[in-house]
Each structure stands twice: as structure tokens, then as C-alpha cells.
Design brief:
CATH topology of the largest domain: Serine Threonine Protein Phosphatase 5, Tetratricopeptide repeat
Number of strands: 18
Low-confidence stretches: 213-228, 305-320
CATH class of the largest domain: Mainly Alpha
Radius of gyration: 24 Å
Largest sheet: 6 strands, mixed
Structural class: alpha+beta
Helix content: 40-55%
Shape: globular
Strand content: 15-25%
């Protein structure tokens, strides 16, 4: 195959997107940190599928024009750091093939090298041993290969590119010690290779289709045909007495696996907590009820969540009619946390966080809903900062400033220091200094068995995390919380902000409040029922 036209280019893109979709759970499983999060594979999948879906609705068969639509779709749909990097790869790709009706092997080679250049520029401190390394090494080697063998066609180019990418992927643990410790390769690079492999199969006339066991809505083909995303189903069951000793988490997981995915089953004595994404929540509840009585249950339509995240603009209305000097946008999850941000003068709270990273488009829509001269964005999660910064670069009619807050406590601290009466530069300086002086400690559950920085972790354990360090891992929530606080709070600290998660009972909260009062009486304590998911407790310490 010497030349690629627009029709085959579109087919190639769909095949790449579907191949990533089929394997995105494998990509997620390579994540080093064993916490529930947006996940690399999920973010890359949502990002790439959004861009490719846009290309299928245009009539042009000009490769450059298709690449432009792809680039814009990826740019607006980018979620998480991996999604933003992926969008930048194909932004560079578009810049390289712009104006070309058809492309050849050399055009592909030049385009991926340009994608490397743009992707590296998007990251302030590029880390080697990641998708960036695999992209750079494989694209340069493949370009050099074509210079040596200019007669090679497009398929031969992709054969060499993918082989080089695999070799580079296997070297990532040697460049990033944390990958070697956990025994995995880089997840983002693995996802990128799955896209390339899908491209090649599409070019070979064997386009990848969505596997039957993939959730409807995850692939491009089924996104086009059916917008159903299923239901996020969570419930807590109190086991019947005769099942307490014989209950098997593994057995329940296996039964639930026939109904959906993203499954978490955690037992704490007679209580069993279940989380599943399924198209048939009733079947999941019927299964759960066989084990005992429901203590709590929640079902959310993920299609509606998706539409809220990807089509926020119609729902967002200007906060004020007349232009104001300042406005603040923050990302948060949990009704109590959202209300707290709103009480601190935040104009728009974007729903999202660890398990649902907002897209660039979400930030753009939020910005456009405001009428302000200066707009602050508080991402409140390290995996959301790049998407916020990407939105910042797209806005021309307002002064948008992303303050790189990496946690909810950091965002709250920045809000407290905001002063509408002083200049933008003074606010940036004061708010930045404030959030940088906050320590964040959190309690959450582990999603897999692993060993991280010397701490042995079992799936379902409660982990105490101080910044990015896992302090402890135990099957007892309160024990993990107390060990974490003893490590995190120092004599020089004067304030502990406590955000209480949706899974914490009144008795558990009373226990922790008593513990804090007994051990840290030198600190002022502020407690808010944050009702946040994923994290039982979030502590801001300063």
C-alpha cells in the first residue's frame, strides 16, 4: 500500500479506536498506584473515541481535513494527563499532514515525529519511561528506517513503527524505577501501541470491531449506534448470619462479572460493599440480595453523567449579567464538598475528580458560562491539571489562570486566600502560597494486590495516603485513618480540615473526632460532611 486516501484513513481511525476500547481495561490494570481513579486506559479511550467519532460524521475525504477534525475532537474531549498527551500527538500529526488529500509512508513518518515534538511541549516536566519516550523513540526510528529504505510502503512502515514501539515499551521499567518495582510497563505507552496496532489492522483490511464483552458505549462503532452507557450501581449488604463465615468475595465478583465490569467487592465482617458498572442493575441487586439485607444502595445512569460532562454548555448559565472582575471554577465530587466550595465564592463547580476526570470541553463550557475579566481554575487533582491548562490556552476573551492545585484541601485553601479587592497578580501569589503550604492525607481502598514502596497491599484494603506516599494498608478503615494521622500531623501544624466521605458512619466519625482531640489538641479542627465518593476521609493539614 503506497497511498492512503480519506476513506481508508477514516476506517483506520475507527479500527484504532476500537482496538484501544477493547483493551482499555488492560491499560487501566497497568496503573502503578492501586487507588480507584480515572485510569489511563479509560481516559485515553474516552479521549480518542470522542475525536474519531467526530471524523465519521463529516463528508470530506481529504486526509488533512479529517486529521483537523480529529485533532479538534481530541483536544476538546481530552481527559486526564494521558488523554491530553494523546490529543497533542494527533495535533502535531494534523499540523504535518494539513493540506494533503492523500498521504504516503513518509507523510506518516513525518507526522508522528511532529506529534512527538508537540506532545513534549505540552508537558512542563517530561518524564522518560512513559508514553513520551515510546512515542519519541519509535517515531524517530521509523522515520530513519524510511530514509534508509525509501521504497517501503505504508504497511511496512507500520510494521517497523509498532515493532520499535514494543521494544521501547519493554525498556520503560528500566527508565522508571516505580514501574520495575511494581512489575509493569508504562500504561499510557501500552495504550498508544494498541491504537497503532488497530491502525495497522484497519489498513490490512481487517478493521477491529468492538468485542461483545465490552460495555456498550465504549467503542466508536457502538457510540455511533447506541449512546447507552449503563448504570453505576453501588450497594452495601449486611450478610445473613449463616453466610458470614462462608461468604467468598471472589465468588461474588465472578458472578457479578457476568453482568458488567469495574467491579469492586469488599467485605468488612458482616458488611459487604459492592460497586459495578452494568446495563442491568436490577440483576445485580437481585444477586446481592441473596446474601442478606441492603443497608444502602445507589444507582446512577452513566449516560446522563456522560452527557453532563461532555455537554455542559446548555446547562451552564451566566452567573451574573454584568461583567465582574473575578470568577472561580473548581472541580469537586460530593455534595458537601461542592457546597463548601460555593460558600468560598466559587462560581462554577464542575462535577468530577479522581474517578471521572473532566474534559477540556467541560472547562471551556464552564469558562464561557461566566462573564468575568479574570477566571481562576482549581483542578484539585494532578491528573486534571493538563486538561484545564489546555482549556486555558483556547480562551482569548478572558484572562484564565489555572492554579495547579492537586487536591481538594489545596483548592479550599486557595479559595480562602482569594481577595476580590486586590490585583490579579496579588491573588495569584497569595492563593499559590496558601495551597502549597497544605498537606493532603486521604483514606481510600485498594483496587488490586500489589507492593508499593515497601508496603504490601491487598485488594479491598484501606490505605492511608500522605500526598503520594502510601503510609499504611489494612483491612480496618479506622485503623488506617489513625495510623495516617499519626504520621501526617506534626507539632508545628495548627489546623486539620476533615472532609468526611459518603461511606463513613456517624459512629466512625465520632471515633476519629475523639482520636484527633486526644492526640492533636494543639490543632484547630474543622469537620465537613463532604459526602465524597472513593475517599472515606480527606484531611487538609497546615
Amino acid at each position: 500500500m503506497n497511498k492512503l486516501d480519506g476513506s481508508l484513513f477514516k476506517s483506520m481511525l475507527v479500527s484504532g479506536a476500537n482496538n484501544l476500547s477493547n483493551h482499555h481495561h488492560e491499560v487501566d490494570a497497568l496503573n502503578v498506584f492501586p487507588v480507584p481513579d480515572g485510569d489511563t486506559g479509560t481516559n485515553m479511550n474516552l479521549t480518542f473515541s470522542a475525536g474519531v467519532k467526530d471524523t465519521q460524521s463529516i463528508l470530506t475525504m481529504n486526509v488533512g481535513d479529517i486529521a483537523k477534525v480529529l485533532s479538534k475532537g481530541l483536544l476538546m474531549g481530552a481527559r486526564g494527563n494521558s488523554g491530553v498527551i494523546l490529543s497533542q500527538i494527533f495535533r502535531g500529526f494534523y499540523q504535518s499532514v494539513d493540506g494533503k488529500a492523500d498521504i504516503y509512508a513518509k507523510d506518516f513518518a513525518d507526522a508522528f515525529v511532529k506529534g512527538t515534538e508537540i506532545a513534549y511541549k505540552a508537558v512542563m516536566r517530561p518524564v522518560e519511561g512513559t508514553i513520551l519516550t515510546v512515542l519519541r523513540e519509535s517515531s524517530k526510528q521509523a522515520q530513519d528506517y524510511l530514509k534508509t529504505y525509501p521504497e517501503k510502503d505504508i504497511l511496512e512502515y507500520f510494521d517497523f513503527l509498532i515493532a520499535s514501539a514494543h521494544e521501547s515499551l519493554l525498556r520503560t521499567p528500566d527508565l522508571l524505577p516505580v514501574l520495575k518495582e511494581v512489575g509493569v510497563v508504562d500504561s499510557g505507552a501500552y495504550g498508544y501501541i494498541k491504537i497503532l496496532e488497530g491502525f495497522r489492522l484497519g489498513l490490512q483490511g481487517k478493521p477491529v470491531a468492538i468485542l461483545d464483552n465490552i460495555e456498550i458505549g465504549e467503542g466508536v462503532q457502538k457510540n455511533i449506534e447506541n449512546e447507552e452507557f449503563g448504570y453505576c450501581t453501588e450497594f452495601i449488604v449486611r450478610l445473613t448470619p449463616e453466610l458470614i463465615e462462608t461468604f467468598s468475595e471472589l465468588e461474588l465478583r465472578e458472578r457479578l462479572s457476568r453482568l458488567g465490569d469495574s467491579i469492586v467487592v469488599v467485605q468488612d465482617e458482616e458488611i459487604v460493599k459492592v460497586h459495578i458498572h452494568t446495563l442491568t442493575p436490577g440483576d445485580a441487586l437481585n444477586l446481592g440480595q441473596r446474601y442478606g439485607d441492603f443497608v444502602k444502595l445507589k444507582i446512577e445512569n452513566m449516560q446522563e453523567q456522560h452527557e453532563h460532562l461532555t455537554h455542559m454548555a446548555p446547562e451552564l448559565k451566566p452567573v451574573v449579567k454584568e461583567k465582574q472582575k473575578y470568577a472561580i471554577i473548581a472541580v469537586a465530587a460530593g455534595d458537601g464538598v461542592k457546597e463548601l466550595f460555593e460558600s468560598y465564592r466559587v462560581d462554577v463547580v464542575i462535577s468530577g475528580g479522581q474517578t471521572m476526570n473532566p474534559s477540556t470541553e467541560d472547562f471551556v463550557a464552564a469558562i464561557q458560562s461566566l462573564n468575568a475579566e479574570h477566571i481562576f481554575i482549581l483542578p484539585n487533582n494532578s491528573n486534571i491539571i493538563l486538561a484545564a491548562q489546555q482549556a486555558e490556552s483556547l480562551i482569548e476573551d478572558a484572562d484564565v489562570r489555572v492554579l495547579p492545585t492537586k487536591s481538594i484541601p489545596q483548592g479550599l485553601s486557595a479559595c480562602i486566600m482569594f481577595n476580590p479587592e486586590v490585583s490579579i497578580d496579588e491573588n495569584v501569589a497569595e492563593m499559590t502560597e496558601a495551597f502549597k503550604n497544605v498537606k493532603t492525607a486521604m483514606v481510600t481502598y485498594a483496587i488490586k494486590d500489589t507492593s508499593f514502596e515497601g508496603v504490601s497491599i491487598s485488594a479491598g484494603d484501606y490505605m492511608g495516603i500522605l500526598e503520594k506516599q502510601i503510609i499504611c494498608s489494612t483491612n480496618d478503615k479506622l485503623d488506617a485513618t489513625k495510623k495516617l494521622l499519626l504520621e501526617a500531623v506534626k507539632t508545628e501544624d495548627g489546623l486539620i480540615t476533615v472532609l468526611v466521605g459518603e461511606d463513613v458512619s456517624k459512629e466512625e466519625l465520632a471515633d476519629i473526632e475523639a482520636f484527633i482531640g486526644e492526640h492533636f489538641d494543639h490543632c484547630e479542627v474543622e469537620v465537613t460532611l463532604g459526602q465524597q465518593p472513593v475517599y472515606s476521609f480527606i484531611f487538609g493539614i497546615e
